[in-house]
Amino acid sequence: MQIGLVGLGKMGGNMRERLRRAGHTVVGFDTNPEVSDVPHLSDLVDQLDGPRAVWVMVPAGGPTQQVVDQLASLLKHDDVVVDGGNSRWTDDEKHAKELAARGIGFVDAGVSGGVWGLEHGYALMVGGEAEYVERLRPIFDALKPDGPYGFVHAGRVGAGHFAKMVHNGIEYAMMQAYAEGWELLEKVDSVDNVREVFRSWQDGTVIRSWLLDLAVNALDDDEHLRRLRGYAEDSGEGRWTVEAAIDNAVPLPAITAALFARFASRQEDAPQMKMVAALRNQFGGHAVETKKA
């Protein structure tokens, strides 16, 4: 299958490679000419046969809106746009309406997998009309992990990004729990091998997970995380999850506390945030702040 891919950063570039390994034809465009296959977005569209499919992997908000606006003027009736970034679900509804006015389909795809997705696959949560989702199934099947899991047609437009938003809210709470446990273990005098305690949990325990594995990776690299500053950003989904909980009167005490803990990290060098920062760097390649020498 042919597909255009707009945005060839840490995830987009790896997605292009995974799709090509699966035998698909991918025409990629990025504002960085060193990684782009074509010089202009219009060239990407020209190289695809109709009906076209274009996957957008750029930052949420203004950058996504700009690309959607450009594609609206370049694509034809029955083409389809996939937003695979971390857009807010309410933006999906707006984009779908704008594109539908021109006869262009829209699918929102929440994507999880970070920098590890090239080898292990990406978990995909998609929203949109069944017609467009089924048309894109060869692409979804190539991107998802091997096996029966890792893909869901979550519902109508916006459902994919809403599901990914909740996924990220849960991720906040899980990372916070590991971080709090790590700080307590580091604090007491009786435990003198915290890294190996974490490693021992990787098999046979009820809290084993991929995040735990990544925590051990981070501790292998910097046993006491002394090189990191206890500061962690939030990328938006945590806030949106809490806002949606308020709108729907659903209590989310753990996720809300995890979000607020990140805010607290910006006021001081919080030890727990060293672990959160280390985990974000491990799974997503997110930047970390190191201590000044």
UniProtKB/TrEMBL annotation:
Keyword rRNA processing recorded: no
Keywords: Gluconate utilization, Oxidoreductase
Xref: Pfam families: 6PGD, NAD_binding_2
InterPro entries in alphabetical order: 6-PGluconate_DH-like_C_sf, 6DGDH_YqeC, 6PGD_dom2, 6PGDH_C, 6PGDH_NADP-bd, 6PGdom_BS, HIBADH-related, NAD(P)-bd_dom_sf
Domain 6-phosphogluconate dehydrogenase C-terminal: from-to ranges: 160-293
NCBIfam families named in the record: gnd_rel, PRK09599.1
Family per similarity comment: Belongs to the HIBADH-related family. Belongs to the 6-phosphogluconate dehydrogenase family.
Protein name as catalogued: Decarboxylating 6-phosphogluconate dehydrogenase
Protein species of origin: Streptomyces lusitanus
